[in-house]
Each structure stands twice: as structure tokens, then as C-alpha cells.
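Try it yourself: sequence plus zinc ion, in.
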Amino acid sequence: MVLNDNRTSNYSRSPEKPRLLRDFLKASGLYSHFNEIGGWAPFNREDFLLAHTAEYVDNFFAGIPHDCVSNGLKWSAQFADSVRYTNASLYYAIKSSLEDPCTVAFSPTSGFHHARPYCGSGFCTFSGQVIASLKLYRDKRAVGAYIDLDGHFGNSIEDAREFAGGDLDLAVPPGFNINPEGVHARYISDLRDRLTMLEEELTAGGIDYVVFCHGADSHEWDQLGSQCSTEEWLECSKMVYSMIRRVESHLRRPIPLTLALFGGYRDDDYDSVLNLHAGDLAICLNIICGLKISFNPIVLKPGKKS
Ligand SMILES: [Zn+2]
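Structure, out:
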């Protein structure tokens, strides 16, 4: 899942984030709460064709410009291989959450939500969310919702609706690719309204699974973000997990929940990005799993390198 020479190739560190975050969780003492699942297969050409044209898929894997660099990342055979795994990781995580809803699934991945049927965009290569949800709808009739708190609008689901045919509207109903608007109090207020709508639909049984992607670039000190202070960013996590817990208490059963990472670009202090992600995971462990972990993320002001 990880691009080995990413540091010398790309501005975005997301292609190496799965490994960086795992190392960070180990150093922070949080890693013992995670079980790594292996043995799942990377995606093949047919999987990518669910959400993309054959021309784009074939050109990307053959390393043919401009398609192979439309994501804004340097192409290499190893990077092309890694996206087969990141996209499959998200799918298998959601599938696992449906099969074992008592366990929160976590795909430590990024690089999906700006991809379009005909090209990549904004550090995103393929529409992992679209592929995962279409497969799960067609195989299991499972209906999903995405809470996308990356700092940037996740266009891949909306852009793929026409290309994917009517199934995507059934797999991820319109309105449930949740991307709040505004900054600070308005962002929180908009998230609250959208979560209320999701809570009603989950309670009514209209949504089967939730995928929460808390991108660290919705933090105001991220180079590419503006929305939330540290306190507000963590409050968003608490709002999401508390809503899930309320539904679980009401329905008296666990809601299939999957987490993913998405953006985060602090080039002055990447540890701030990892601290935010770890802070979100600790809140999940406390609210959803009933633990009492004390973890205070350290997010430095820009320019104050640790
Ligand atoms: Zn972003």
C-alpha cells in the first residue's frame, strides 16, 4: 500500500501515510488496540472499470502521459501497484465492517475522493469509494453513507453517478456523501445538520454502513485547509462517533463503521497530521469501543517545528 520513495517524488505524503501512521501509533502506545488484517487481494482491471473508462485505466497502468499523472503525482510501477492495494483496502475494510459490525474497520488510506471517471485529480487516482460501494451494493445490496471531513469537497461519488448508472444512487443515496460547507462555527453547524439527517436514515434502516474519512487538511493550519481549529476538528470526531453510538443504543445493534484517512499536508510538521489522525482514532476507541484512552494530539502552529 505504501510508495517507498515517495519523499523524493511528491509534495503529498499520502502515498506513504499508511506506514507513517502505523509507526506513529506504535510510538504513541495506541497500536495495541489495532489488529492488522492481511490476505486480501489487490484490485484488478475489472474492479477499476466499475468507476473508470478503459482508456484511463489502461493508460494509467501502462504509465502513459497525461493519464498516468493526471492525479498530480509522479508515476512509477510501484506507485501503480500501490493503488491496487489502497483501493482494495477500502473495499475489504467496508466489507469486513458489514460481516463483523462489532469491530470498527480501518483502512489507513487516501487518494480516492477527487478522481473522476476519465482521469485522476488532486492527488487521487481512482474512485475507491465508488468502486467499493458499487461492489457491495451489487453483491450484498448494502447501502452506504460517507462522512467526508477532508478539507476539500469529495467529488468522486457525485462525478461518477452518471457513469456508473443508477446503481450508485442506490449504493450511496444522494445527500449521503456528506461534505460540510463553511468554516469554524458554520462548518460545525452544517455538519450537525447533515449528521441529523444521517442519524434519521440509519435509525430508519435506510443506510447499512458508514464510512468516516477525517482528513487532516480540514485543519486551519494545514497548507491546503481552512475549516477547523484543533478543538473544532476533534469536536467533529466526537459528533460523528456520538451520533453512531446513539443509533446503536436505539437499535440495540452495532452499526458497520469504517474509517479512512484522506488528506493532510503539513510540510513544516507532518507529525501534526499524524497527531490529528491518532486523536480521531483515540476518540473512536473511547466513544465507540468504550475505552478510556488519554491521548492529547500535539498540533503545532505553522513554522514552529517540533
Ligand atoms: Zn483534501
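One thing you can check immediately is this: Residues 21-55+85-287 form a domain with the Arginase; Chain A fold (CATH 3.40.800.20).
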